[in-house]
Amino acid sequence: MARTAGTAPQPFQQLVTVEEARERILARIAPLPPRRRPLLEALGLVLAEPIRASEPVPPFTNSAMDGYAVRAADTAGASPAHPVILRVVGDAPAGSASMRPRAANPATQELPPHTAVRIMTGAQLPPGADAVVRFEDTDEVEASPLPAPREFVRIRRPVQPGENVRPAGEDIAAGSLVLEPGTLLQPAHLGLLAALGRSWVLVHPRPRVAILATGDEIVPPDQPLLPGQIRNTNSIVLAGLVLQSGGIPHLIGIASDHDADLERRVTYARGADLILTSGGVSQGDYDRVKEFLRQRGRFEIWQVRIKPGKPMAFGAIDETPVIALPGNPVASVVAFLQFVRPAIARLLGRTDLAPPRVRAILTQTVDNRGQRRHFVRARLDTRAGTSVVTPVPNQGSGVLTGLAHANCLAIIPEDWAEAPAGSEVEVELLDLTAFPPTVPFLTVTGRAGYQPT
Question: Residues near 268 by Cβ (< 8 Å), separated by ≥ 6?
Fold first, then answer.
């Protein structure tokens, strides 16, 4: 379970920059303790141990082609018009520890001069051989049907020592450092571990992230709406973002605007490495989350120079970090991307905490009164070789359709009252590859009842 140090309560009116809020959160979050995981469950996780090779890869010198193992010197001068004829003295199938001598030849593993061994890709090169002639460079392709077994082979092209041969240790030398701690494991890394005989590996595990929606007006998505009610979209969107960021979402339901219900819901978060709440941290009469957090744990309550969204809180309950996000759906997503996604990356042991960004030209003027950093939902495209970014219609902080139609956030600095069309701005990409979930998705349905799915 992730832990965070205690912090003194701060005035709600304290205004902080996006960078300051992010730095305060990351300063109190550390990578999760390493655990051993099967290789496929380690995909996308961060390696927590050095990997050294106890043996070379490949472990023996082998053929890179189907053909004939030969002494390269015996093929000198070979051509289609004047082929070199070699006696075939054995066969070397893949998976055999040694070549199989032909019955009419002495049972020796050493390749005699002026002879050849018919060899398959991956088969161990017999002692004495130093090259492989491909079938395509012999008369084998002309013979139909092939004699079984054939006694001689005609070599139509000379080969050099080492040609079509994979030496022992060509990929990995015995004793070498193959992977360093901190490596983000991709499929090729898993292949290297398998080649070294590893089926488990020490990694920083995926964090379990508890997600709590708050508000008397919030109901589950499958519940009919009564007057004044809205469906819980935040938990679903946040769970998707948690998965996309590499975490394991644990939906702990919806809490009403009452401390007893909040307290009960928080108990469902036991075992989580991070708790996310949405709503209840503004200045409304029924925004109880901020006061509950102050009473229940150690929290800083901030207003952040960010648009959409401004109110949020960070601290801990029973040493588990908590990030309280705004209630408006788009504001919640924007705050997640700026503050929660880096926190999950830190828990994962990653060091690449900055979001992927590019620069592009605005196609429309964007108003930015209010001295807040504006994350504009937009579409990034290329026109005549230039990256351009176009805001989507309806930038309301509760309008999910705008976010669904966007593939990026155009970032307008807080000291710009207006971003004119034609200006160059930073653009944060939204189209990220989701991490594969490797454990059951956990949910709490409705307002009560724990149910794993």
Answer: 210, 252, 253, 444, 450
Exposed, middle or buried by CB within 10 Å (0-12, 13-18, 19+), for 198? middle
SS3 labels along 10-36: CCCCCEECHHHHHHHHHHCCCCCCCEE
Lowest model confidence (mean pLDDT) among 77-91, 117-131, 293-307, 323-337: 293-307
Q: At what angle do helices 289-296 and 259-267 cross, to 10 degrees?
A: 60
**Tokens encoding 328:** 């408006």
Closest residue by Cα to residue 137 from 111, 112, 164? 164
Instruction: Report if residue 4 sits inside a domain.
Output: no
> Are 285 and 158 contained in the same domain?
no
CA distance 303 to 145: 82
Q: Nearest CA to 408 among 370, 371, 362? A: 362
Domain count, the chain: 4
**Domain containing residue 295:** 15-32+206-354
Q: Kindly state whether residue 124 falls inside one of the protein's structural domains.
A: yes
Q: How far apart are CA 78 and CA 159, in angstroms?
A: 9
**Angular region, 240: left φ>0, alpha ψ -120 to 50, beta rest:** alpha
What's the chain's length in residues? Answer: 453
- Asked if residues 14 and 306 have their Cβ atoms less than 8 Å apart, the reply is no
| pLDDT classification of 419: cutoffs 50, 70, 90 | very high
CATH number at residue 117: 2.170.190.11
Does some domain include residue 284? yes
CA distance linking residue 349 with residue 254, whole number of Å: 30
**DSSP codes joined into one string, 252-283:** EEEE-SSHHHHHHHHHTTTT-SEEEEES--SS
Tokens found for residue 20: 């300051």
Query: Please, which residues bridge with residue 340 across strands?
Result: none
Greater confidence (261 vs 130) lies with 130
Residue 143, C-beta contacts closer than 8 angstroms, at least 6 positions apart: 150
Kindly state whether residues 248 and 350 are assigned to the same domain: yes
* Structure tokens, 285: 């009469």
Residue that the structure tokens 């189209």 belong to: 431
The pLDDT, as a whole number, for residue 432 is 58
Identify the pLDDT of residue 342. 96
Compute CA distances 441 → 39, 239, 437, whole Å.
20, 10, 8
Distance CA(200)–CA(49), nearest Å, equals 12
Contact 146, 118 (CB under 8 A): no
Check pLDDT > 80 for residue 400.
Answer: yes
Do 218 and 346 belong to one domain?
yes
212, 347: one domain: yes
- Please give the average per-residue pLDDT across 49-77, as a whole number: 96
Closest CA to 219 of 450, 447, 449, 64: 447
